[in-house]
Amino acid sequence: MSVMRLGYLHIRVTNLADAKRFYVDTLGMQVVLEQGNKIYLKCWDEWDHHSLMIEEGGVGVIKLGYKVAKPEDLAYFEKRIEAFGVSTTRMSVGETLGVGEGLRFIIPSGHTLELYHHMEFTDTAVGLINPPLFPRNLAGVGVPRLDHCLLKTDNIPLAERFFIEALDFKPAERLVSDLSSDGELLGTWLFCQHKTHDIAFVAGEKGRIHHWGYKLEGWDAIRHAGSILSMDDVSVGYGPEIHGLSRGETIYFFDPAGNRMEVFAGGYETYPDFPTITWTADQLPRAVGYISRELKENHFTVDT
């Protein structure tokens, strides 16, 4: 019984045409379907129907979808979630486009989350038989896959406890005010399989998102991404840098509506008995930007 990965993210944007140009031409995502005021997109190395849906009408996150390993996992997690005190509703086939039956619920941070097992398979840009290393016609950054997200909450311990007790996630890293027994939990980075983190929480207004991340292959890809972002006059909030926390190579930037995202490379692999790494608040500059040890105000004050 397991949650496997972040499968999709549905967000709002202020202008659909501007957003489409950004996600297709700058990030290099592929349009799967345009439907009214919505566009469904995927990255070139993703198998499922879509990983991002953009909808005109504001900013911020609408909902997130996490894929489970087996159909019977839905009933297993339904019991765990309800036992925690969170109500669930059953999703019917197609209620979320391309997605099979699932569970929908509001997590303690105020975000809507869906669990599902089946999603329509639409192949990758390189296929499954003798595939090339990458498509020849990649545009812009050419992001391969959706990786993780960082959400805001007014109760980090409760959000962390829910993902541990109800969904079997584990904390890879935590940020605390100090190492005393009553030290405050300031952030938690949780994994469900082998990533440094599949979801994370920091302090802020419930229901808000700090960023979501796309996984690139290495520092050269991060450097290339930075060049593309500059060519396209994209607003960059932080980086290029290396996080002490997660050891990830990173750039944070904003879409035309102001939603923040990240390109992320490196990091380390986790496993079931991975011990939690702890960072203290006095080392926050190294945790965020290990090389420069500089903190940008927008990194802590801007969310959608």
UniProtKB/TrEMBL annotation:
<protein>
    <submittedName>
        <fullName>Catechol 2,3-dioxygenase</fullName>
    </submittedName>
</protein>
<keyword id="KW-0677">Repeat</keyword>
<dbReference type="InterPro" id="IPR029068">
    <property type="entry name" value="Glyas_Bleomycin-R_OHBP_Dase"/>
</dbReference>
<feature type="domain" description="VOC">
    <location>
        <begin position="5"/>
        <end position="118"/>
    </location>
</feature>
<dbReference type="GO" id="GO:0018577">
    <property type="term" value="F:catechol 2,3-dioxygenase activity"/>
</dbReference>
<keyword id="KW-0223">Dioxygenase</keyword>
<dbReference type="InterPro" id="IPR004360">
    <property type="entry name" value="Glyas_Fos-R_dOase_dom"/>
</dbReference>
<keyword id="KW-0058">Aromatic hydrocarbons catabolism</keyword>
<dbReference type="InterPro" id="IPR017624">
    <property type="entry name" value="Catechol_2-3_dOase"/>
</dbReference>
<dbReference type="GO" id="GO:0008198">
    <property type="term" value="F:ferrous iron binding"/>
</dbReference>
<dbReference type="InterPro" id="IPR037523">
    <property type="entry name" value="VOC_core"/>
</dbReference>
<comment type="subunit">
    <text>Homotetramer.</text>
</comment>
<keyword id="KW-0560">Oxidoreductase</keyword>
<feature type="domain" description="VOC">
    <location>
        <begin position="145"/>
        <end position="266"/>
    </location>
</feature>
<comment type="similarity">
    <text>Belongs to the extradiol ring-cleavage dioxygenase family.</text>
</comment>
<keyword id="KW-0479">Metal-binding</keyword>
<dbReference type="Pfam" id="PF22247">
    <property type="entry name" value="Diox-like_N"/>
</dbReference>
<dbReference type="InterPro" id="IPR054560">
    <property type="entry name" value="XylE-like_N"/>
</dbReference>
<dbReference type="Pfam" id="PF00903">
    <property type="entry name" value="Glyoxalase"/>
</dbReference>
